[in-house]
């Protein structure tokens, strides 16, 4: 029958529309240029950063988390948790309960146990049935909770930026596309350490990062992704200039036989030998005006750096620009980070653009912990408990998340609600069409039949 074919066609169109709506999910790429200080964009012409600011949003002051080191802050960016809560409290760690050590330069990086006090966003995204891709982000080549990103690259510092970008573009394209990607690049951190951030030699390094951002933009445009995808460009921390005149030698104040040194300057974990805590503490307490020594319980609450077994019984924090070493035989760098997160020199850059972000909007300040709930909102995911606040950064977005109720649903509820809604909607439309077509076909029946029924019925 012709109208049955018509129903089938309607049904197919409805199903195809529903499927394409489901596939039309927000895409998000988070990029970190390690050690890109917030004000580097003002040092040399940075046309690509400028374009992103004009096309999207810029945040002038971004407060990262204590300590302002690479591993703690990269994990904060993808968990919304301060270091004491996500557990990656330093680049070098010791866990006294389990007698285990972690070093960012050793195989312990791949021991998932260090990462499993939190769940990174790529895992949450995948648990919601979506796909993630990671290019060298710290921790992204570790099976955290038994799960790797859907696509990832094993860490290889020598893989060029361009290759990492091309991998991500592939993952963001095609029918099996990811909706969330993370991209990491080692510069300008490495040059900042070696040259010092105030060196004029840093200018071409910063210009090169802008060129790399330009390469990413061009590749996104060529793939037809530039206007579909939300792009966030930020960093883990800034960088400050050091000086040979600003070195504190711990051996001057306390015997190294009394403690174990954990992590490096400018915030050092000190593990006193059994029964030696008070002796070490009193030796260091007023030893040098350019360093502060805290017993663990004295660490200011607003540092969010106390409640974790991996934080040592004593920590030393030195003033900006100072270096703490056991003696001068240790290696010395001209630039460093890790200092107090209230210092402007420690703050990272932040720019973002895409369909979800406002245009030409400058925000005065945010905290990096707020980025996680913001990204969850963009991806339509329910955030896990975190230290951030979506309402603090909601003004960066075009649309308020309250207009997207599915954000508050669990992934299972969300897909269930979608399925029920689709079935009910389809059934209603088919029912309506059935009645409509029935009416039309009845009116087109032969006049004799119609008149018969009209005549016979009143006679019953
Ligand atoms: Zn870093």
From TrEMBL:
Residues 1-20 form the signal peptide. This is AP3A hydrolase. It is found in: Membrane. GO terms for cellular component: membrane. Its cofactor is Zn(2+). The keyword Signal applies. The lineage of its organism: Eukaryota, Metazoa, Chordata, Craniata, Vertebrata. Keywords: Glycoprotein, Hydrolase, Membrane, Metal-binding, Signal, Transmembrane, Transmembrane helix, Zinc. One of its GO terms (molecular function) is hydrolase activity. Pfam families: Phosphodiest. Belongs to the nucleotide pyrophosphatase/phosphodiesterase family.
